[in-house]
Fold each of these.
Amino acid sequence: MLKILPAILLFALLAVGCAGYRTVIFEFDSATGLDRQTGEPEKLHYNPTPERWPWWVRHTEGSGFDWFAVFAFGLAPSPRVVENPSGYARERLAELPELAAGDLQRNAQVASRLLWIAESDEDHALNQVIAIRGMAVIMRAYKIDPLSLPRPREESPAVQQAHLRDRRFLASMWPGQRARRLTAEDRSAYIEALQRLSALPASQPRMGRDLLRDLAYRLPQEGDNQLYRGTREAMRAVLGMELSEGLKKALGSSAAVVREEATLALYELSGPTAVPYCLAALQKRSTGAALFDPSPEMRRSLIRICGQLRGPVLDQSYPLVPGIQGPSPLRFLYETAHSDRVEGLRTVAKEAISFCTGRPISFELTEIDQAWREHMNTLAETSRSGTEGGR
């Protein structure tokens, strides 16, 4: 047996070749202190000695040899020193969305971790960027448009208490906790609690992540067909809403690279209509109206995105707060061309305005002002024609 062991191992490595989902998520959790039962630790801290399986068990997951090795030789994970704990966790986080592809439960498990890192790891912007990219992978797979979903619940004690009440009720009825056979009334109450919890995003990100994690953990244990369907539907709804809110929340990051990644993801997932939303969100956090965002790199990225737009979306705006609109993409370009502190950005904005308005490229402010006036006059005439036609 020992003589053929190397051959078996070589075959298993050639057949599989990389760590699988269960191994990678176990190692990520060990590196971050995430516990399946208690959830996230109070403070994110990367463990310098995470537990790992022996490399040849890691790389044979799913081949059958991994379980053979565990039971035959008594192998188990053991603490291993890593030089860069944050990078170690990041590598595993980057792998998870692809490993979870096509499996709703696994995607929910992964999403809760991506959302956690995107919100909590402010000391490592690269980790947040990787988390946002993973969130976008899942959202693309499930065709989630982050701007088409409802806004979060009101953040009030009463709303939070109602959320926790429904969570406690579900916990008392989870598979394994049921003291008796469920009646029709029990099933109805259970489904109604699921529907209430999944109707709107949670009022606090942590509450949404905890709910998503609970639903993903309990789903495979559910033996009642009706409740299995209800739990799965609720999990799918919560997945979309919490990912959408997490992506929008990333626009408020203190790191420009994180804001840029979130903007690009929103633009990809929601299309051109995401641009007015992002401009409003970014201006809301800015210290100067003409800046729109404190980072020159971020403003350059916004100019490039706005320069690709054509048609009515150029003049669309999104409310900063009720009654106050954010800037339209064309207004952002116009004000940037006039007043940005960086000369190079003023130049790029002038070029973008020429592209958007279909005029010859010009870097003269007089020409830009003329293009702006003509565009606004055309817009006003179109608005008047529409009003008169509707009478």
Amino acid sequence: MTAQIDPRHELDELVGRFRHLREEHRRAPAGGRARRRLVRELRDAEEHAERRILALVDDPEVRAGWAAHLHHGAAAPELPAATPPVPRESVPDRPDGRRPWPR
């Protein structure tokens, strides 16, 4: 049986991860090794979230709403009811080839 992922739930988790990393980066001391590592993780999380938004949301206005939610803290837009859940096998791996993003 193929596990189904609710697109809204997945996007909310990706946004939460991105915001968490952004706050860690903000609190990290300037010029430190931890901050440089967080810059890379933040960039990877942002790219992954943007790819998933493109893959899960068909409407350009709703995509723009999710991008605003990701970057500026705007309210999360509603996904159209016609958006079917995505099978787990279609979720791409992380860019570095490791397992899919943590839940």
Amino acid sequence: MRNVLAFLLSLAFFLAPAAAADDLPVVTLDEALASAEANSIGLQQARIKLDQTVRNQDAVMTTFMPDLALTAGLSTGAVFPGHVLGEAAVESTMFTGLNVSAGVAASFTFDGTMITDGAGRRIAKEGATLDYASAHRDMESSIVDAYWSIAAGDASEQSARLSLENAMVSYDSAKEMYEAGLADELTLRDAELMIQQAEIQVQTLSDANALTKSAFMNATGLKDDFTTEPMPGTVMLDLPSPEDLFDEYAEGSLDIRTARNDLLNAQNGLDTANVASFVPVLAVNVNYNYAGSTGAGGVWDYSHQTHALTGGVTLTLPISSMIPGSEADMLRKDAGDAVSLASLALQSAQDTLLEGIRQSVMTIEQSQKTISMETARFETAKRSYELAQESFSAGLITASDLNTRRNSLLSAELSLLSAQLDQLVASYDLSYMLGISIESLQTKYMTTGEEN
């Protein structure tokens, strides 16, 4: 009796989480993405850098503004008794007057780098925009993959718990037959073994899903336990060749756009090095100064005031930068190498994108073939298990035979879920590579009349 009680308590332990899961709040994919976006430090950093480049571009006209300076001064003095002022000695302390000075200076310097400054700021802003979009895409991709992995894990665990419940029903039936003398102890022990095997399966799936959910909650900032939306129906895709997909979507891909912007940045760097080396430097300055005093008598008059206006223009020719082997010449060569490297990086990004598209298309096609086969296997295993249940109830097969059918059904269901998850994740990955939404991808390439 004690063993039976312990056995029933262990069953309650494994089945209780299934009931508790029904009471958990549902977190939608959109809610998870919004939470992850607010929680992502990398995304916040990318946003700050983007804001900086936006401000920098908005301030592009400051490059051509002169430097202005304003100066002012105020002073006074005094002479003391015994001091000779002119021909007469000062008999008492006397202030010498109030001295005032003021000036304004304006200067402007034009050099070759100012020619390319505006383009450099625009390129920097575009680079920061692409970096932010890439960070957002990477965040979204990881969250989407984890979210649907949890959904598939929940479905797998639910199937395993259902299998456990079926094993319990079989055990009850075997126990009744054993107590009625219609079955031997081996049949009863086989039924008990089926439950233990089902418990192990449930625990294994539950542990794996708990690890995935823990990492997901850390990434999204979610604090309370939750359940996901059910996995969406599989949208079977009829995709063109990877080369055709590349030709149609490559220029809209974030990776290609980033590589092209990097190339523009390198070319602008080369242009900057050239104009800095060959364009003369023009410097213009204008200064106005005023000085005035009340004099010893404390009366302000024009004879005590001075005005001065000065200015100058300087044109500097960078002769030394034109000499081969000079520092400026080395900078130009380095800038040219940077253009070559950026061009090669663009080619590499194109090759990487094409290979990534090939891999995703291959994964999608293979997963869809697996889905078709596993769907057929699941239906066969399901019918086989239903027939086995009837035979077991009639005493025509053993508990071990029934367990074999049950394991085959669970295996087929888990394999089908795995293939559906692979197809869904690969579809998302392909949409991210192509720079389009998953909805656009599925709408455009959905196989007519096929959705599982």
